[in-house]
TrEMBL record:
It comes from the Bacteria. The chain crosses the membrane at residues 12-34, 72-90, 102-129. Keywords: Membrane, Transmembrane, Transmembrane helix. This is Uncharacterized protein. It comes from Paenibacillus psychroresistens.
C-alpha cells in the first residue's frame, strides 16, 4: 500500500515541529553560554530575560539566568520527546500509540502555552478521521494476523 498524502503531510509537520523545538532548545542553550557585550545577541538575551522576569530593571546573576532558561528548556523538552516517539510509532505502524502521543502533545501544548496547539489538534484530526491514513498505519497489524499475507508483505 502506498503512503497516502495525508500521512506525508502529518510526517512533514511532525518533523518540522521536531526541527523547531530542537532549534529553540539550541538557541536557549546558546543564550546561557555566551556573554555578549553588545549587538544582536546582547539585545536578544535582554529580550528573553525581560520575558522571564517581566521587568527590565531587575539584574540577574549568571546562575539565575541559567536557572530561568533551564526552566524554559525543560518546558519544551517533554513535548520534544513526545514528537520523537510519535515519529517512531508512525514508522512502526502503531495506530493507537500514534493517537495517544498526539493527544498527550495537545495536552502539553495547552498546559505550557506552546505555539503548536492548533497544529497538534489538526494532526490529531487527520490521523483520527482520514480513512487512508488510518488504514495505512493499521496495515501491519492486519498483515500480521493474516498468515497468507505474511508471505508477501507490502513493506
Amino acid at each position: 500500500m502506498k503512503k497516502p498524502f495525508s500521512l506525508k503531510f502529518v510526517n512533514f509537520f511532525i518533523i518540522a515541529k521536531l526541527f523547531f523545538f530542537s532549534l529553540y532548545i539550541l538557541l536557549l542553550i546558546t543564550l546561557v553560554y555566551i556573554h555578549p557585550i553588545e549587538g544582536f545577541w546582547y539585545n536578544f538575551k535582554l529580550g528573553v530575560l525581560d520575558a522571564i522576569t517581566g521587568d527590565s530593571d531587575i539584574v540577574l546573576t549568571d546562575s539565575e539566568i541559567a536557572e530561568a532558561i533551564g526552566e524554559m528548556i525543560g518546558s519544551i523538552l517533554i513535548p520534544t520527546i513526545l514528537v520523537i516517539l510519535n515519529i517512531l510509532f508512525i514508522r512502526k505502524f502503531m495506530y493507537k500509540m500514534t493517537v495517544t502521543m498526539l493527544v498527550i502533545q495537545v495536552f502539553f501544548a495547552f498546559s505550557n502555552n506552546i505555539f503548536s496547539v492548533l497544529l497538534s489538534v489538526i494532526l490529531l484530526f487527520i490521523v483520527l478521521f482520514n480513512k487512508n491514513t488510518k488504514n495505512y498505519i493499521k496495515q501491519r497489524n492486519a498483515i500480521e494476523s493474516d498468515p497468507i499475507a505474511l508471505e508477501n508483505p507490502p513493506y
